[in-house]
């Protein structure tokens, strides 16, 4: 009875895969508070008590592991020891926020994609039975996406909340127009409004005139100026992505 060489090797490969998977899972779940041991009263600073930091596993995705060796490798006062460790935690909090913001942006793009599909001209021309089937599929995907809840809070006052709500309403209306040519024209007006104010390399606000960027939508510009700087940047990125899509739709027509 002949045995295929590849089949004979497969169990060992599977075992190796399981071992690697266990190793990765163990590494990712090894968050602990060992780095706080150096904050106990009477602790003698020593590098041997340092917790494993990101350099040990080669991963930058660990948010709970903090290397306190810098805080313990020499005799320092208690205040400096706290500050050193908190500086590292603060850096990881900032990375966590950025990663969460990227996920929120991805979710927003998926939501916009489904809105664009629902307003697509080809969908409207399909037979009713086929269109209903597609709409049911969209509803199922939307429901699954709705199970993903991300909330990175941007500090806004009431006026800024109202301004952002106006912007979202204007963009949603533009997406649901149905005519890619009209939607593209409106999107260009909105995008031009985003370009009338730009930050120069020195960090100063540089105002561009309408003649330099083309016609703008005054209502959109007014609402945009009432948004936070972070919101303004995100709005511009959304519009640029939409413009890329609408340009392709216009060319196909």
From TrEMBL:
Q: What is the lineage of its organism?
A: Eukaryota, Metazoa, Ecdysozoa, Arthropoda, Hexapoda
Q: What is this protein called?
A: BAG family molecular chaperone regulator 2
Positions of the UniProt region annotated as Disordered: 1-23, 44-66
Is Coiled coil included in the keywords of this UniProt record?
yes
Q: Where is the composition biased (Polar residues)?
A: 44-63
Keywords from the named record: Coiled coil
Family annotation (InterPro entries): BAG2
Parts forming coiled coils: 79-106
| PANTHER family per UniProt | BAG FAMILY MOLECULAR CHAPERONE REGULATOR 2 (PTHR12334)
Give the species. Answer: Drosophila madeirensis
Q: Which GO terms describe its biological process?
A: protein stabilization
Which GO terms fall under molecular function for this chain's record?
A: adenyl-nucleotide exchange factor activity; protein-folding chaperone binding
Q: Which domain of life is it from?
A: Eukaryota
């Amino acid at each position: 009875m002949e045995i295929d060489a590849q089949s004979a090797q497969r169990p060992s490969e599977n075992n190796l895969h399981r071992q690697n998977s266990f190793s990765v899972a163990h590494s990712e779940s090894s968050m602990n508070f060992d780095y706080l041991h150096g904050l106990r009263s009477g602790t003698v600073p020593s590098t041997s008590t340092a917790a494993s930091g990101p350099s040990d596993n080669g991963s930058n995705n660990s948010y709970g592991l903090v290397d306190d060796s810098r805080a313990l490798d020499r005799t320092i006062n208690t205040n400096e020891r706290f500050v050193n460790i908190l500086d590292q935690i603060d850096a990881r909090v900032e990375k966590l926020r950025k990663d969460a913001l990227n996920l929120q942006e991805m979710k927003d793009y998926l939501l916009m994609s489904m809105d664009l599909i629902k307003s697509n001209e080809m969908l409207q021309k399909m037979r009713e039975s086929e269109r209903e089937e597609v709409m049911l599929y969209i509803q199922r995907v939307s429901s699954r996406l709705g199970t993903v809840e991300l909330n990175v809070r941007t500090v806004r006052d009431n006026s800024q909340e109202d301004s952002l709500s106006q912007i979202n309403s204007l963009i949603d209306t533009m997406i649901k127009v149905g005519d890619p040519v009209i939607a593209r024209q409106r999107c260009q007006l909105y995008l031009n409004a985003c370009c009338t104010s730009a930050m120069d390399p020195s960090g100063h606000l540089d105002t561009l005139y309408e003649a330099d960027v083309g016609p703008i939508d005054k209502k959109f510009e007014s609402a945009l100026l009432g948004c936070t700087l972070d919101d303004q940047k995100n709005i511009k990125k959304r519009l640029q992505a939409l413009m890329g899509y609408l340009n392709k739709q216009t060319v196909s027509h």
